[in-house]
Amino acid sequence: MLAVTMTLNFIATVYHLYWSIYEFDSAVHFLGGMGASLFFLWFYFFSGAFSPQKRSLPKFLLISILGTMAISFSWEIYELVFKKTMVRKIDYPYDTAMDLIMTFFGAITACFYGYLKELKKADFYGQSQN
Question: How far from 1 is each of 5, 6, 26, 39, 56, CA to CA, in Å?
């Protein structure tokens, strides 16, 4: 997922797709949110770095959303502080809000995907989700 997002970002930057295709930026943020969310879910639940006893939907949502949005907010602050944004000042609040919203939707999508895979795995092995 990270490689796809980075490749799309590179292509968009080279060919000015962020400025010529209206929603390209939103699609890249959505995919970035999915990638970050999947990373945080893997790291917490499956990497072995932690020993989570409970694999419930609220726990999946918490890990997924907090991790992903921490990265997203940090990136938006970085863009603001170091003036790395390419949008006009008048459009900045809208652009930032859309970036955060699409990242959030990507995180939610990946979270539900991960949780459904976990349910399927638990059902296959006859394990309880509590």
Answer: 6, 9, 15, 9, 24
- Can you give the pLDDT of all 130 residues of the chain as single tens digits? 889 999 998 999 899 898 889 799 999 999 999 999 999 999 999 899 998 888 899 999 999 999 999 999 999 999 888 877 767 778 888 889 999 999 999 999 999 999 999 998 877 766 655 5
Q: Distance between CA 74 and CA 90 in Å, rounded?
A: 21
Angle of helix 92-125 relative to helix 24-41, nearest 10 degrees, comes to 40
pTM for this predicted structure: 0.86
Domain boundaries, the chain: 2-125
Q: What is the dihedral of CA 96, 92, 78, 102, to 10 degrees?
A: 20
**Amino acid letter, residue 104:** F
Which residues, 6 or more positions from 11, have their beta carbon under 8 angstroms from its beta carbon?
A: 17
